[in-house]
Specification:
355 residues; alpha/beta; TIM Barrel; 8-stranded parallel β-barrel; two-stranded antiparallel ribbon; 10 strands; globular
Length: 355
């Protein structure tokens, strides 16, 4: 049942205030179960409605939880809400609004991920490294200080899909320079978070590969900051791309070959990370709406099921666009009517997680 819309969002559930637990990253990821992204909202520009989505309300998050999702990822772009060098001071009003939505989730006993998302100043080149490292350190120090008293149900993610825009192999591994600099950015962000003390000394932190991609060169060159046991690898998997992100290509999915290919991709991630004790969250996955609900549901259910069997939690990318037959329609939830625009897909995701 959807919980009371009139609840006091400041009356946090135990998930917000519990002490940091003595659990491993693998245990935490298992408990996250399955998730949903509040996409194209706080990552959209100057305000949360800039890309056409409505103001986020407690009732929206209540509905997400009621469906069975246990984790919400809240992508956040900070660059429109902070001052210039040398301090890069973040607007308190923006901090307050992000915290309101975090609390909507905590009232529902959910895990929450917040990150830096679409911040265009994060350029992974040696030429930009000194300036970006300074800015990234100051931004993450402020974020970490602001939310340091929350329990480990709040997870920080250092970067989203960091890459050199329009650079070589932008989405498939970039250059050795790009990968090296991204490793240094992840390290700087983690050190900034840890340096604020309190719960942040042992908070779980997600770090991505270049572009958050699963290309061999990307996963092989990823360096875990300080070999920190509380670090979780953040990956995005829109696979197979012909089915997931090409509006004019494959409309069907579910053959034995389809399943074995997906299993092989997830196996590669498992063998690189999870098998060796390093937790993984697939922070984004999803498929375009090609008016093919059964195929999308089959893919979503199997993706989550196989990922879960290999110790990984998957989080659906929902950007609020769900009209069939056009590109970029990853949305499955109608935020205006608080109903599921693609109910088969939503049910399949939750079913795949065994909820």
């Amino acid at each position: 049942m959807i919980s009371d819309m009139n609840k006091d969002i400041n009356d946090f559930s135990s998930t917000a205030n519990t002490p940091i637990r003595n659990i491993t990253a693998l245990q935490l990821v298992n408990d996250m179960k399955v998730g949903w992204n509040l996409g194209n909202t706080f990552d959209a520009g100057p305000d949360e409605t800039y890309w056409g989505n409505p103001i986020t309300t407690p009732a929206m998050i209540d509905a997400i939880k009621a469906e069975g999702f246990n984790t919400i990822r809240i992508p956040v772009t900070w660059q429109y809400h902070m001052g210039s060098a040398p301090n890069y001071t973040i607007d308190p009003a923006w901090f307050n609004r992000i915290e309101e939505v975090i609390n909507y989730a905590f009232v529902n006993n959910m895990y929450v991920i917040i990150n830096t998302h679409h911040d265009g100043w994060v350029v992974p080149t040696y030429e930009n490294q000194t300036q970006v490292t300074d800015e990234l350190t100051k931004v993450w120090t402020q974020i970490a200080n602001r939310y340091k008293d929350y329990s480990d149900y709040l997870i920080f993610e250092t970067l989203n899909e960091p890459r050199q825009m329009e650079g070589p192999n932008e989405w498939t591994g970039g250059t050795a320079e790009n990968r090296d600099v991204i490793n240094q950015y992840n390290l700087a962000a983690v050190n900034a978070i840890r340096g604020t003390g309190g719960n942040n000394e042992s908070r779980f932190i997600m770090v991505p590969t270049i572009a958050a991609c699963v290309a061999s060169v990307a996963v092989n060159d990823l360096v875990i900051p300080n070999n920190d046991s509380k670090i979780i690898v953040s990956l995005h998997m829109y696979t197979p791309c012909e089915f997931s992100t090409d509006i004019n290509s494959t409309f069907n999915w579910g053959s034995d070959s389809d399943k074995s290919s997906l299993e092989a991709e997830l196996d590669a991630v498992y063998n690189k990370f999870v098998k060796n004790g390093r937790a993984v969250v697939i922070g984004e996955f999803g498929t375009f709406n090609k008016d093919n609900p059964s195929a999308r549901a089959a893919h979503a259910q199997y993706f989550v099921q196989v990922a879960k069997s290999k110790g990984m939690t998957a989080i659906w990318w929902d950007n609020g666009k769900y009209t069939a037959g056009i590109a970029d329609t990853f949305g499955i939830f109608n935020r205006n009517t608080l109903t599921w625009a693609c109910p088969k897909v939503a049910e399949a995701i939750v079913s795949g997680a065994g909820i």
